[in-house]
Design goal:
The protein is an alpha/beta fold. The chain has eight helices and twelve strands. The model has no long low-confidence stretch (mean pLDDT 85).
Length: 226
């Protein structure tokens, strides 16, 4: 069943990209390019979720978010922003956002996060800040990874790849999913970029003596888990 979602985003290309994706998945998307108008719509529209850009004309996203929460509106909010530091994420979450997505992003990830928030039923539920699989632990705010208490140093792309695998732990993740979710490619570049990065990640995660966690599923993709 489709949901009613408000998008407050002033970049026209980004807004069209998101609205098209929402429509393709059966959702009704309303749009505002201005913070003040977006706040008015959010207080009056009965939305299932709100996608809120942080930098907006009229009224910035943080102010919109603060006004919504002060008014007692508990609609789930995902903040979209180009600001991706730990402090920026913490500020957004503590201000009342339910999730935080850094630009550029893949629509598949935005949709997955939206659906998770709407299933949880709104603001006030716990914000996911850590991921775990066996003795592998990831802190999404501090951007740190540990395996059995050992710190694992990862490059930004390796971190994003591992985060994606951990979010789908126990499931087969296809190459197409990784290309879109980690590299934001909506086509096959015809290179072995995925194999190279998975190989590097495996050398850091599955060192000698550890139970292997990253598995190749022949002809399908990869799976994270014991």
């Amino acid at each position: 069943m489709g949901r009613k979602i408000l998008l407050v985003e002033d970049d026209r290309a980004t807004a069209e990209f998101i609205l098209k994706g929402l429509a393709e998945h059966g959702h009704v998307g309303d749009h505002s390019a201005d913070g003040r108008d977006g706040l008015f719509m959010a207080t009056d529209g009965g939305y299932d979720a709100i996608i809120l850009d942080r930098m907006l004309p009229g009224m910035d996203g943080m102010a919109v978010l603060g006004a919504l929460r002060a008014a007692g509106i508990e609609t789930p909010v995902i903040l979209l922003t180009a600001l991706g530091s730990v402090d920026d994420r913490v500020t957004g979450l503590t201000a009342g956002a339910d999730d935080y997505l850094v630009k550029p992003f893949a629509f598949a990830e935005l949709l997955a996060r939206l659906e998770l928030l709407m299933r949880k039923g709104g603001h006030g539920t716990s914000v996911e800040t850590t991921l775990a699989c066996s003795d592998l632990h990831m802190d999404l705010l501090k951007r740190t990874v540990q395996r059995g208490g050992r710190r694992v140093e990862l490059q930004p792309r390796e971190f994003r790849l591992l985060e994606y695998l951990m979010r789908y732990a126990g499931q087969v993740v296809t190459r197409t999913m990784l290309l879109e979710g980690v590299w934001d490619y909506h086509f096959d570049p015809g290179t072995n970029v995925i194999d190279v990065h998975v190989s590097r990640l495996r050398r850091k995660i599955d060192i000698e003596g550890d139970v292997p966690l990253i598995h190749t599923v022949r002809g399908a993709g990869y799976r994270l888990g014991e």
